[in-house]
Design a protein that fits this description.
Length: 500
């Protein structure tokens, strides 16, 4: 193999945090071992994920966590982002009952083992697995109930684990909880748009729950000396042209995705364009709620996987509802862009753009942490997809794929990470205060509605035997983590499609 001609070494700041990420429902399994049901148990056992997949066993991380931490050590991981399963601590969601001893013991042992291995834990409190008992009481649509319930749960976590956890993330991707859970119905609890307000109501309460947990930490646990942030997801939207309508479409797309959750926290209220489109269908914050939300995040967690274009529709959409309210041709794209197995366009420069946008618009205190970035690619699955009639757009690894002899060789993912890490580096050079990067994901896992067919891991999991094998992308990242930097992509590794 002739080594590609690269253009130089990209060094990251000394204190940069390199890690890997997972979430409870996607990896733990042990669904019945002391854990109460969550909305994802209900949703997946009802058959809403592909091939009837559920998280009942997943990666069996609940039993294999020690082995998994050894693997992380061998990958030179400095930080590990995982989530706590709410219903493993509070099987009935009820914080008036004492938390489950079994649940406390599991997370306590996990934290001890991580610290023993010199790995810094970054802990997400809510990665989508709402206790079913709380959903039955109205879930994210019930303001009084859910804000208090989340605060009580957060307090239990801070109390039991805050001696060892210095980085907390209240919510993972509230946009997904609100839109996929309460509008498209692709995720639990699977509400499809019965009303044109449900996702805004859920989103409102998600924000208030975040603020409640952040306030509890600051008022009751300040002496623990940690930080509390939130992880928001968005793909960068680039205007398709310089026409004013398209520039406006790009602004709206960013404000209806990232801004919806970022602006109440960083700028004091919902984006103006949301209020204009939605009127009273978008709930309002009281003065005291605004105050509680403002600057309620000690760092800006950003999850970003892709980018796309924004184009104004030829005439305004009719009707109301989240997608109509945005008023952007959401699926407009560049067909030259490569695609991952999720069909998400591969647009590395968009990660640089969104980081610069976050820095410029929100100036987050504590800086920005990329809390997720990665790609799904799996030789067998996409070979199948490639043969689907009339199907897919070009993929980055067309041609490479069939030459790939092993499931553990994933040059496509190496290429993805190299390109995206160099985009992060470029953002830092342009003064974005990016403090860390977590690869999604440590393990192949339960990819929500997609089941087990979409593999994001840098470690291969054989779901029959639970055997783990480090992929070449894992070895690649281990070298990046150790060297605190990487060689820039070679010319031939650059991706096709528009770059603007
Ligand atoms: C994130 N979308 O999910 C989640 O935080 C992870 O749990 C998940 O495994 C990962 O990304 C990969 O999907 C998303 O439709 C799911 O835009 C869907 C979307 C975005 C993020």
């Amino acid at each position: 193999v002739v080594p590609a001609a690269r253009t130089g070494f990209l060094a990251f700041p000394e204190s940069f945090v390199f890690g890997v990420a997972t979430s409870a429902y996607q990896i733990e399994g042990a669904a019945a071992e002391g854990r109460g049901p969550s909305i994802w148990d209900t949703f997946s056992t009802a058959g809403h994920a592909k091939d009837g997949a559920t998280g009942e066993v997943a990666c069996d991380h609940y039993h294999l966590f020690k082995e998994d931490i050894r693997l992380m050590s061998s990958l030179k991981v400095k930080a590990y982002r995982f989530s706590i399963s709410w219903s493993r601590l509070l099987p009935n969601g009820d914080a008036a009952e004492p938390p489950s001893e079994e649940g406390l013991r599991f997370y306590s042992e996990l934290l001890d083992a991580l610290l023993q291995a010199g790995i810094e834990p970054w802990v997400t409190l809510y990665h989508w697995d709402l206790p079913e008992a709380l959903h039955a009481k109205g879930g994210w649509l019930s303001k009084e109930m859910i804000v208090k319930a989340f605060g009580d749960y957060a307090r239990i976590c801070f109390h039991h684990f805050g001696d060892r956890v210095k980085y907390w993330i209240t919510l993972n991707e509230p946009w997904c909880s609100a839109v996929l859970g309460y509008n498209t119905g692709d995720h639990a609890p699977g509400y499809t748009e019965e009303t044109d307000t449900a996702c805004y109501v859920a989103g409102h309460h998600l924000l208030l729950a975040h603020a409640e947990a952040a306030q509890i930490y600051r008022e009751e646990f300040a002496q623990q000396g940690g930080e509390v942030g939130i992880s928001l997801n968005a793909d960068w939207r680039q205007a398709d042209s310089e026409r004013e309508e398209d520039l406006e479409a790009a602004r709206r797309a960013m404000e209806f995705s990232l801004g919806w959750f970022a602006e109440p926290i960083y700028l004091g209220d919902y984006p103006k364009c949301m209020r204009e489109s939605c009127g009273d269908r978008l709930p309002s914050f009281s003065a005291s709620e605004k105050k509680k939300l403002f600057q309620s995040s000690d760092f800006f967690g950003l999850n970003s996987y892709s980018g796309n274009m924004a184009k104004a529709p030829p005439r305004p959409f009719e009707g109301t509802g989240y997608w109509e309210d945005i008023g952007v041709e959401w699926w407009h794209t560049d067909h030259q862009w490569a695609r991952t197995d999720m069909d998400w366009p591969v647009v590395p420069w968009s990660l640089r753009e969104i980081l610069l946008y976050v820095q410029d618009r929100y100036k987050p205190m504590g800086g920005i942490i990329v809390t997720e970035n990665g790609c799904a690619c799996e030789p067998d699955i996409s070979a199948e997809l490639d043969e689907r009639p009339g199907a897919l757009l070009p993929r980055p690894w067309d041609g490479v794929r069939r030459a790939t002899s092993s499931d553990f060789e994933d040059p496509e993912r190496v290429r993805f990470f190299r390109a995206h890490l160099s985009a992060v580096h470029a953002a830092i050079e342009r003064k974005a205060q990016v403090k860390g990067y977590f690869a999604w994901s440590f393990l192949d896992n339960f990819e929500w509605a997609e089941g087990y067919g979409k593999r994001f891991g840098i470690v291969r999991v054989d779901f029959q035997t639970q055997e783990r094998t480090i992929k070449s992308s894992g070895h690649f990242l281990a070298r990046v983590f150790e060297a605190n930097g990487l060689e820039a992509p070679a010319k031939e590794e650059q991706y096709p499609g528009r770059t603007f």
